[in-house]
Amino acid sequence: MPVPAIRIDAVTKSYGSFMALAGIDLEIAQGEFFGLLGPNGAGKTTLISTLAGLTRPTSGKLFVMGCDVVGDYREARRRLGVVPQELVFDPFFTVREMLRIQSGYFGIRGNDDWIDEILARLDLAAKADTNMRVLSGGMKRRVLVAQALVHRPPVIVLDEPTAGVDVELRQGLWHFVKKLNADGHTIVLTTHYLEEAETLCGRIAMLKAGQIVALDSTANLLKRFSRRALRLRLARPELALARGGVANDAGWVEFGFESATEIEPLLAGLRLAGAGLEDIQLGEPDLEQVFVGVMNA
Amino acid sequence: MPESFARWLANAGISAGFRTLFYKEVLRFWKVSFQTLAAPILNALLFLLIFSHVLDRHVTVYGDIAYTTFLVPGLVMMSLLQNAFANSSSSLIQSKITGNIIFVLLPPLSYRSFYAAYTLAAVLRGLFVGLGVWLVALPLVDLPLAQPIWILAFAVLGGALLATFGILAGIWADKFDQLGAFQNFLIMPLTMLSGVFYSIHSLPPLWQQISRANPFFFMIDGFRHGFFGQSDVSPWLSLGVVSACFAMFAILTLALLARGYKLRG
After folding, report:
1. What is the CATH number of domain A226-285?
2. What pTM was computed for the model?
3. Nearest residue of B to residue A109 by CA position?
4. Sign of CA dihedral A10, A13, A16, A22
5. Chain B: residue nearest A92 by CA?
6. Residues of chain A with CATH 3.30.70
7. Quick check: A91 contacting B, CB < 8 Å?
8. Terminus of chain A with fewer CB atoms < 10 Å: N or C?
9. pLDDT for A157-196, tens place per residue?
10. What is the ipTM, given to two decimal places?
């Protein structure tokens, strides 16, 4: 059995009396596209920082491709690429200089072929000799992705990579990241855009107050926590509200259901009561419902 | 220049991570050399012109050495020390505040490589500035070179001590004004009161004693010995004091870096 891309064993991290991570156990297999979700302050960035060696765990162990991030930090860091959440850059250097320097930190010389390829794939080739200072926010974000890839890490962590990024860049970035995943890279993503996580991630962990409160495949989470919705527009909506419907802001009355067999009796009852059906919609379950459900549980 | 130096290090078999960080730090000050090299050289030149104009005909030191001639080694060393400190401390605080310190914390760099790269780059900047001050002073004074080995020893050791001190300050400070306080209330007074502008034998006995508690005095006095072959105290004593201070601060800095103090949470 191949070694997991990431293994986290009983990791805690406390700052005084505050527990940022309250005992995390997690295993991510090689080749997964994994989502790490949670509200602000849930511990996502602390967990990533601990994995990257930027923060030391109070207790527990973390491994990247089988390498202990504390005891065998050199090997662990060689196998990990991190795109940080903050839009950081070094104003003294050009894009190419930055990527060459980053390669050198990992002990790689003569990396220009790979650097050129990354620049081309991230649509940065025209900016290669531009100083970091004058790049737009979106371009700087791409350079951060490029920096995380210069040493060809098998595991890539993206911490909110699309925060404040325009639609075109976001789509381009996801296209690139999906390609990396298809090439065998393990991807760990944190994002507040739940539709992105739902589309991209095969498996998802949800964090709340430093603990994993849900961990499953995206499909199972949607099945387990989310119900499909039947939305009706009625001449007399009060009759539907009396049968357990919930009015939404758009003037629809919404019913949740798990099986299509629940729909027919509901519609029959409303017809007999004279509710006056004017329009009908079916809503598929989404990760936002799951997220809200899990966080409020 | 920095690239050829990095190539030389590579050929010498020095680790790539250290080499790159050193190269990056040198490139950083080289790219803004007007500010990091030319400005401090100009400052020192102004000191030299003003003091020489006012005092040269009135003061001699060590018997018959003209004041301006006496002053130049002190100015060279003062500039060297201040710029070694400024390089490592400003680089670190800027990286911490802008967040780009993450670029050196994520790769597999050891804390020893981290320390060595920041220290050596800062020493190199100090040496460049010191050399620059010496060169611009050459047409103005007839400066002897009695024992150059002392000049080299104190330049490198003093630069390394202040570079280390700069790393400590850069790690400790969270804001620019904290670093400014370090520079203005510690480094600057200790430098000014170290005998850059005078021989401590011209001071009252109490101030002579106080000066001997200042490690900057030993750095400058030992450095000056290399030029004149004479100094306020034995260069061996100065070498011992400066080496001990360097060892103490280097051990402290390495211990803090190993713990990730203020760098790794």
Report:
1. 3.30.70
2. 0.87
3. B16
4. negative
5. B28
6. 226-285
7. yes
8. N
9. 999 888 777 788 888 888 989 999 999 999 999 988 888 8
10. 0.86
